[in-house]
Design goal:
2 domains, RelA/SpoT domain-containing protein, globular, Arc Repressor Mutant, subunit A, RelA_SpoT, GTP_Pyrophosphokinase, plasmid, NT_sf, alpha+beta
């Protein structure tokens, strides 16, 4: 049944400004759920189409999608005072590429493919990379797409831009303030804005001055104290439940396919509660999404989100703030640590990182090896840069190469270095 635009907007008002519970309000909530999940099919179709194009792109990338969480929609309706039908990012796709110039190249690549033959329209490109958005410093390029009457937002970011965005997401939950929406202590907000500005300078090939580095580290120390005091549950000292991650890896689709998962994360303990596989059928997806949202309330510190990707390894990159909670003394990195970390990460491309992740997951260390042909043709077919990526890993000494390059395995002597790349 088609829901009218006025009815959808009424459902949005009912959601954002709830009154007493009535039969009508329950019907409106059902209409909201129907409208939100109606983005899943056009979103999945667009993601798969772009994923197919990317095989000819010639560069490294990660691509994933998500259907916007209900608490996020409620906050946005209230903050912007807009109608539900005006929201353009209920369905969202995200692509992570290596560098800022790679973002430009990918935008041109997508424009060309849309113009030649696409099942969707490109309505607008909004670029937040030079100035950063609002007062927060958020940087990314947003492409507004449309298919089957639904707006879909495509975000394209470099790895550094994505690192910043995921860091502020994770900090926001632990701090208890939505920093990208300018909630919270200005000291914390300004730290992230200044960090974003300096990252942009670094990515543009300009080194930050000593004064900028000192200023940022002073801001970091002040922000860290504020955030740590707010982290009552000490989430930063928690560990990810890798058993759930390994179990879900067995449910992912074949190469080039798209699997949607419902993911439940407990920010009180910093761990996954559960994952559940969701198909592309709108009705069953809606039932699962609403079931988990009702069972795990955001008011109690749970986060329920629907994410789609070709494999779990991709989600670990595109939504890394769920996976990056490791034990360390400082909540926020100082600039020197960040630069060193980025230098390590940028030494290898996305393709090389995917190869490393696969070899680690399959435990190809030392004497346990795999033929290069099997690795290329069966396990990493989506790595378009396989030959150059594998050569990079060889040159860095991360691989142990068998006779005549017939077999390869991970170099046990480089175990800690390999883990840093991931």
């Amino acid at each position: 049944m088609t829901i009218s635009k006025s009815r959808i907007d009424k459902a949005g008002r009912n959601l954002a400004y709830p009154a007493e519970l009535t039969i009508e309000s329950m019907a409106l909530e059902e209409d909201f759920d129907d409208y939100r999940i109606s983005h899943l099919e056009p979103l999945s179709s667009i993601t798969l189409e772009i994923q197919g194009w990317l095989h000819d792109y010639g560069g490294g990338y990660y691509i994933a999608q998500r259907v916007k969480r209900k608490p996020q929609i409620i906050r946005k309706l209230r903050r912007l005072s807009v109608r539900l039908t005006q929201l353009q990012d209920i369905g969202g796709c995200r692509i992570i590429v290596e560098k800022n110039e790679s973002v430009d190249r990918l935008i041109d690549f997508i424009k060309k493919n849309v113009k030649n033959n696409a099942s969707f329209e490109l309505k607008r490109v909004t670029d937040y990379r030079v100035q950063g958005r609002d007062l927060t410093g958020y940087r990314s390029a947003h492409l507004l797409l449309q298919r089957d009457g639904r707006s879909i937002e495509l975000q394209i970011r470099s790895r550094i831009q994505h690192y910043w965005s995921e860091s502020i997401e994770r900090t926001s939950v632990i701090y208890g303030k939505h920093l990208k929406e300018q909630e919270g202590n200005p000291v914390v907000i300004n730290y992230f804005k200044h960090l974003s500005d300096i990252f942009y300078e670094i990515e543009s090939g300009r080194d930050p001055s000593v004064q900028d580095k000192v200023k940022l580290d002073q801001m970091r120390e002040q922000a860290q104290t504020i955030i740590y005091d707010a982290d009552r549950n000490r989430i930063f000292d928690s560990n990810i439940n890798e058993d759930i991650v390994r179990t879900l890896a067995a449910t992912q689709g074949y190469e080039g396919n798209l699997t949607n998962w419902i993911m439940v994360f407990n920010w009180n303990s910093g761990e996954f509660v559960t994952w559940d596989v969701v198909g592309r059928n709108a009705e069953s997806a809606k039932e699962k999404y609403t079931h988990y949202e009702n069972q795990f309330s955001s008011d109690l510190g749970f986060e329920v989100v629907m994410i789609g990707a070709s494999d779990i390894a991709t989600i670990r990159q595109t939504h890394s703030h769920y996976f990056g909670i490791e034990k360390f003394d400082d909540i926020l990195e100082n600039l020197d640590q960040s630069i060193i970390g980025f230098k390590t990460r940028m030494d290898i491309d996305v393709g090389a990182r995917k190869i490393l992740e696969l070899l680690v997951r399959k435990k190809y260390w030392g004497r346990k090896s795999i033929s290069e042909g099997t690795l290329k043709n069966h396990f990493t077919r989506s790595v378009n840069t396989f030959d150059t990526s594998i050569n990079t890993l060889r040159d860095l000494g991360l691989l142990t190469v068998g006779e005549q390059y017939a077999t390869i395995s991970l170099n046990l002597k480089k175990k800690s270095e390999i883990e840093r790349y991931l």
